[in-house]
């Protein structure tokens, strides 16, 4: 199945732009031009009225609504009512009218249209000349940004220059809570309280079912003009003002809107308190110019520490920078009750829900970018431990079962074949605790929140698994990452991840008991963990079923080798996506793999397996894998690079950095593939860079794809910023403080002084 | 799990009755007192107004409505919109009022209440004395029956005797299409046209979504009184008349309502044509007395040919007669577009849908009772062959895939884990064709409709199954009758039934090609069947995977022996029904069996297996079986009897005949377990009687349970009525014409002259 680029945006190392507006790409551009700061996000929709196809959406991280209960679900243990990140208010909303003619790019005549996102400061700029029906022309420039430093602040500026006439215009600026969620068009917001003082207005909105509140305040100012009249709006769930503006030919005027968004997720907080907080925050808000300066400083600093440079492929260069930019926008550890939805804050698809992608795909980016952000991702799971314990009870198990998909910690998926059989969300949390603790040495976390989660997860796994009559422990009726195999037994992924979870739980608990008996006593008091229970975990771990041979070849699940074979390369392109074109059960009765099971855990716990085992499994499973998950190719690319299969490595890398920029899956209109964006970063740093973080010390085996002249990346590790620069001949490494790691199999200490090493021939793709 | 009787009805060999009315048993009694004649059915609800808990339902076989499309289904190949047998008009509806006081047993004071169903004539009688608030008393007797001979005819009679006063009463009689379906309370019927001539009234109703029409006409007459006034009703979807009746103390008066119900399933028929047919049919209708005489004659004749007598247990005697009575009421081959819903025509549960129970559980009753009825059951599947072909396409297969549940031939089940993985509806149709053809010698059917279905079913099976790399044929991702094992491979039931289907298809096709080339040419023209395709079926059959050993012990599916064991006897009673109390996935990850897979096909194709194989499998699977299907115990009982495990045989028989009379499952309120009723018949005739019909000739091995003194049953076979009478010492057999069969392993010819054989000690339970 060949994926084909649909290139629309201009290729440039530091910007993403379109020259001219093609409405057919309207929704794709809205997704691509999304701005966010973890706290909130807004798609790149037009500020002014637009009657063409558009998804006007703004989101606040963790602000969700409940769906209707599904009456078709009649069995126990199945989640009947999901939740989803709800479309919130349009704080950019405005209209522009000149003598009764309203600006609407669906109908207006415009020229010189450009739209550009600058990755160096996160500012989205759009400009064009609007020609009215009678030939009068107005030049318009719109800018917006959401502060990465001051979470509640966002800014909009519009500059208007009448080119060939004088007269007047009406500019209406609004805070609009009357938005509609595309998938559920009933209004989700109530106007709890609002105000309108003509140059300042706002609404305290509340969601219908989840009682989350957002208070949006706008402060409006003009330069180069004074409104002749200001008329307040009177609409349901909308506040704002219409300003009558005198226009003088060729004299620009500027409208500036400073927005404050206050999110309150706690029902106990009084409306008055939110109201006051909003007013105070708004009063203290930096002005546009000052905020823009701070914003630019933030991104300068960010790129200095986290940039990846690719020499020899501008498209990949742009792609990876766009990925890093969107990762940082989506999440940077601002709040431990936030997480990373499958589409970030850029669209409605997957309901804004977070999956186990967070721990397996996204976490490494933060581990090597900002440990505090990484910690907050792990703390998110601690903050939802109670929900995971409730879920475990719901499925007749003990301990804590983490959800397949969630915003608030509760399982949101009603599909039992996923929610009740996929144990990887729980084992991924254990993996994340281990990965974070291992790279951070944060024993304080590990010995409290970390071990508490580990005990509850192991307890869940032990109760969900079972002993067979040969005293072997295994999991029955489970689905691994390969979602084309439903209800399997002895699934290698599930079993291996459970084994690692048991072992890390035992090791951590026993170490704590020995080194810090008082804290261990707290754990016992809190969880009831006992030596006997740890012994059970050990027993299960010691007798875990693995279907493999002495060469290290692993059978994905009981019966996998026996499944009928289909040649995935012969499936017609028109059959994709398979879920839409194949009878559901047909997906499940052959040896086709959606995304890898065995290769996945051989990536996650890479050092546990011999090269021979990895090669055998790669060679067997790769031709059977259809990559219906956008995360799948990067894992194959990383392992291919490790196995010196350089053609595979670059082929699987393929569209990784440009999945959305080139709309490879033709669904970027619904939002960005945020977790694939994380996989693209992995693909360069773990793939071509050869980073491994699962051994006792960091491993680096940088290689170079044949099509690149060179590349460099930076990672932050134990207080040092490490730069790895690769050219065709040389690998140059620096670290801002002395850092020891294994480079090409040899213990090496990096320093500020560059270390130059010849790129080994074995790692140079031909 | 012990099931406990909730005995409420009086035990009697020929009647079912209640003495006194207990509203707590109101809905159970409504189900038990259901009347039907295949064409239509009505629960035993009260004729007059009743404000207590009640399910006022009448049904017409094959008259269904569509449910709403399920928006949660997003995958291909899954049925999104089901259908269900819809509650139709209440043609018994009436009110009785005396001086403003309305009869309502929820509030009225009554004495001497009795209700009785007479199995000898199918008449339901109810009588009581109603005491008004001021002490005035009225004796009331209600009778009703639905004609078994004249499908569209039904009768109601009410006799009223004022015991201690004279005065007047208002009796209102109605045809009421304003009924509500319990599970979907919107009105489902439109009043297309109606009339009201005071002593005759009717409505031609049409269902909203399926456009089925029912024309109900009532003719009303009085004896012993002449109404002083007759006032027509004016209500939506209701016609009728209120009659003012003078009352004279101790002088009975009788109200008689003759009802004609005309069902039209064909949309093409004009309303006028239905209207005229209704009027003509009503005009020709027999009166109450004549109809009752015909009805009694029908049942006299029926019982003479089909009765089972049990000597030594009146409760079982009543139970089995009730079962036979309800089977005959529900279905007797009146129309090949009818089938047998899981609840017959007695309630809403399971949506009135027919399952594969029809072919496996119900068909044998008709094969030995009325071959024409049996043929019509098989012809039902031919009449829905096109729907089965559409369904096969929908699941990306070829040929014909018969639905899990249906009224109109389309799949009605949206649960993919059943509808897309259970192949037993299709193999059951093949089994039924074979069973019918084998017992009837109806080669005309077999060589036309029969072989056409067989080819299409085999084609489906061949396309749904697959070859593995060892050139073995099997089915992957399937569920056998044991619905506690989802998505299994190498399921023994599926594979064995498919093998038998392939073999019978090949045998029938090849025999036809040889003996009747012209008819075979028709088949080829119609189905495109070829020698190559038959060779494929043969190849699949020859290389079908069976996981078994040389002793005949069969593994239910790949990996079954390896499943964690749970002791089903230790599951607390409060956990039942498990679907309500266990997390859905928990049902699926152990070796607990819902209903038997291996034992089931060893029952269906009984002669194919050695006694040793049957014993080994019985001993292994029985302790693992939880019998969450009400069909399950009878299969175990039948095999236990064959294996001379007499304690098991009688224990599993247990509640079979009285499942509903004693409300063992506590859900008889929702309707009768019609297919379990069929299983009870099987349990006696195939179980204790030792009948086997899958060999070249009939086999009989009658035994006697220890708790019975004796029993006798009758079966119709190749034009003979055979009576088998068993006492503690002797088995006596007669046949109305000479019939050869195998009795206790010896070829024996039965005649009109009784043949007395000593009951072998080996078959006598101690």
Structural overview:
The first copy, chain A, is α+β, with helices and mostly antiparallel strands. Chain A has three domains: 230 residues, Glycoside hydrolase, family 65, N-terminal domain (Beta-galactosidase, Chain A, domain 5), CATH 2.70.98; 389 residues, Glycosyltransferase (Alpha/alpha barrel); 50 residues, no CATH class. Helices cover 31% and strands 23% of the residues of chain A. Chain A is built from 19 helices and 29 strands. A nine-stranded antiparallel beta sheet of chain A has the order 1-9-10-11-12-19-16-15-14. Chain A has a five-stranded antiparallel beta sheet with strand order 8-7-13-18-17, with no helix packed on it. In chain A, helix 5 runs antiparallel to helix 6 and helix 6 packs antiparallel against helix 9. The radius of gyration of chain A is 27 Å and the shape is globular. Chain A starts with 14 loop residues before the first strand and ends in an 8-residue tail after the last strand. The interface between A and B is large, with 43 and 43 residues.
């Amino acid at each position: 199945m060949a994926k084909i680029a649909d290139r629309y945006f201009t290729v440039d190392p530091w910007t993403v732009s379109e020259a001219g507006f093609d409405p057919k790409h309207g929704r794709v551009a809205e997704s691509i031009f999304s701005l966010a700061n973890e706290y909130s996000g807004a798609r790149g929709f037009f500020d002014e009225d637009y009657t063409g196809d558009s998804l006007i959406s703004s989101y606040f991280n963790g602000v969700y609504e409940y769906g209707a209960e599904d009456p078709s679900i009649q069995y126990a243990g199945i989640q009947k009512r999901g939740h989803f990140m709800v479309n919130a208010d349009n704080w950019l909303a405005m209209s522009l009218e000149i003598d009764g003619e309203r600006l609407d790019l669906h109908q207006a005549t415009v020229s010189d249209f450009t739209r550009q996102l600058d990755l160096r400061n996160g500012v989205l700029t759009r400009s064009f000349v609007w020609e009215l029906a009678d030939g009068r022309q107005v030049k318009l420039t719109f800018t917006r940004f959401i502060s990465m430093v001051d979470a509640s602040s966002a800014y909009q500026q519009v500059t208007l220059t009448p080119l060939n006439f004088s007269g007047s215009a009406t500019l209406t600026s609004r805070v609009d809570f009357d938005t509609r969620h595309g998938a559920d068009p009933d209004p989700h917001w109530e106007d709890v309280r609002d105000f309108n003082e003509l140059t300042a207005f706002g609404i305290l909105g509340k969601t219908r079912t989840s009682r989350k509140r957002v208070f949006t305040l706008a402060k409006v100012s003009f330069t180069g003009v004074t409104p002749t009249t200001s008329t307040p709006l009177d609409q349901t769930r909308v506040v704002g003002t219409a300003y009558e503006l005198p226009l003088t030919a060729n004299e620009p005027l500027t409208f500036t809107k400073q927005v404050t968004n206050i999110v309150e997720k706690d029902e106990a907080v009084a409306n008055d308190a939110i109201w006051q907080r909003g007013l105070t925050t708004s009063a203290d808000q930096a002005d546009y110019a000052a905020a823009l300066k701070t914003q630019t400083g933030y991104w300068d600093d960010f790129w200095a520490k986290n940039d990846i440079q690719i020499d020899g492929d501008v498209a990949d260069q742009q792609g990876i920078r766009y990925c890093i930019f969107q990762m940082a926008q989506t999440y940077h550890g601002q709040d431990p009750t936030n997480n990373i939805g499958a589409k970030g804050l850029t669209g409605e698809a997957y309901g804004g829900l977070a999956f186990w992608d967070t721990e397996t795909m996204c976490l490494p980016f933060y581990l090597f970018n900002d440990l505090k952000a990484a910690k907050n991702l792990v703390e998110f799971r601690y903050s939802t431990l109670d929900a995971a314990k409730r879920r475990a009870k719901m499925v007749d198990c003990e301990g804590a079962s983490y959800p397949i998909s969630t915003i608030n910690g509760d399982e949101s998926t009603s599909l039992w074949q996923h929610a009740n059989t996929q144990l990887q969300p729980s084992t991924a949390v254990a993996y994340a605790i281990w990965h974070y603790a291992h790279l951070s040495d944060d024993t304080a976390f590990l010995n409290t929140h970390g071990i508490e989660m580990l005990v509850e997860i192991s307890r869940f796994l032990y109760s969900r698994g079972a002993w067979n009559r040969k005293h072997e422990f295994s999991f029955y009726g489970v689905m691994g990452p390969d979602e084309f195999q439903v209800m399997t037994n002895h699934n290698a992924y599930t079993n291996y991840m459970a084994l690692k979870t048991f072992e890390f739980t035992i090791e951590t608990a026993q170490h704590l008991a020995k080194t810090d008996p008082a804290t261990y006593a707290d754990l016992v008091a809190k969880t009831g963990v006992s030596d006997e229970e740890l012994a059970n975990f050990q027993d299960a771990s010691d007798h875990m079923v693995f279907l493999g041979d002495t060469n290290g070849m692993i059978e994905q699940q009981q019966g996998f080798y026996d499944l009928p074979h289909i040649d995935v390369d012969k499936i017609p392109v028109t059959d994709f996506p398979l879920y839409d074109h194949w009878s559901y059960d047909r997906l499940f009765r052959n040896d086709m793999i959606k995304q890898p099971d065995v290769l996945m855990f051989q990536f996650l716990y890479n050092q546990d397996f011999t090269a021979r085992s990895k090669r055998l499994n790669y060679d067997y499973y790769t031709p059977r894998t259809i990559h219906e998950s956008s995360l799948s190719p990067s894992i194959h690319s990383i392992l291919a690079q490790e196995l010196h299969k350089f053609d595979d490595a670059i082929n699987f890398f393929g569209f990784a950095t440009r999945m959305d920029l080139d709309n490879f899956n033709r669904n970027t209109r619904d939002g960005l593939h945020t977790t694939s964006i994380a996989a693209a970063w992995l693909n360069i740093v773990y793939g071509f860079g050869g980073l491994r973080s699962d051994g006792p010390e960091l491993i680096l085996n940088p290689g170079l794809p044949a099509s690149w002249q060179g590349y460099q990346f930076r990672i932050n590790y134990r207080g040092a910023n490490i730069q790895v620069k690769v050219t065709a001949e040389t690998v140059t490494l620096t670290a801002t403080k002395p850092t020891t790691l294994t480079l090409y199999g040899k213990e090496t200490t990096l320093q500020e002084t560059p270390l130059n090493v010849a790129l080994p021939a074995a790692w140079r793709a031909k």
